[in-house]
Amino acid sequence: MSKTAFNVNPSGQRSEEDFGEILATWPHRLDLLESTPSTNSYLLEQSGTLEHGTLAATKIQSGGRGRFGRPWFSDSESIAFSVCLDAPREMQHLTLIPVLAAVAVLNTCSALGADVRVKWPNDITDTKGRKLCGILTELRTQGGTPRNVIVGIGLNVNQAQFPPEVAEIAQSLRILTANTTFSCPAVILSIAQELLSGYNELLNHNGGALVDRWKASCAMFGRPYRDRRHDQVFTPLDMADDGSLVVRNQDGTITTISSGEVIEVAHSY
């Protein structure tokens, strides 16, 4: 496999030695940035056509963001990168991109020996709910037409500890694997490969296996949660084929939720 082209943002510098594993094997466009506020924003702001599989990775992400514009904590021991996917034509395929991304991270973490879970809609946690990965998917349009889906991933990899303000809610691969340290470029490469493989699975087989994999690693079902945005309490029961969450409301009715921000509550109903 030939070495991929190296594209450097004018504000950054080449970091080829640190990320040599990616440079040697990634078959698509790679934009490696010394620093950037957000790899998602970087790809969204690119002009012209973006190749399917374009990967933007950075050593320092100064303005990482999660859903609803919230900041994402990032340091030199974590990874931050985004992958550009062609926007699927089928709406069901499009709505399953967050599921695809979560499964890509889940598969890599599991292969590295970490016992992790998925939390709807976009988090990877340990078995106690401490977060080690956030995923943000954003649509890139041209002339009002969906062209790409940008999948941004931030993953805590080699942190041995966290600042006091996040120590109770944050987790890392290193802590989960008995102090094992990992090559950050190799972790990026593994997740990106899983992402493209899962994308092909999604288009060719409608994502049934991806949904099953997600559900098998979800610890939410049967436990009460609250949607913080709508102050609604419910119990998740299942994931629908389009990636929405099937829930039982407090009045016993069964509905689906397609977006939200959910937290577990300490009591049941």
UniProtKB/TrEMBL annotation:
Xref: InterPro entries: aa-tRNA-synth_II/BPL/LPL (IPR045864), Biotin_CoA_COase_ligase (IPR004408), BPL_LPL_catalytic (IPR004143)
Record-linked Gene3D superfamilies: 2.30.30.100, Bira Bifunctional Protein, Domain 2 (3.30.930.10)
Matching CDD domains: BPL
Name of a matching Pfam family: BPL_LplA_LipB
GO molecular function: biotin--[biotin carboxyl-carrier protein] ligase activity
Cellular component terms (Gene Ontology): cytoplasm
SUPFAM superfamilies: Class II aaRS and biotin synthetases
Keywords, comma-separated and alphabetical: Ligase
Domain (BPL/LPL catalytic): residue spans on this chain: 15-203
UniProt name for this protein: Biotin/acetyl-CoA-carboxylase ligase
UniProt source species: Desulfurispirillum indicum (strain ATCC BAA-1389 / DSM 22839 / S5)
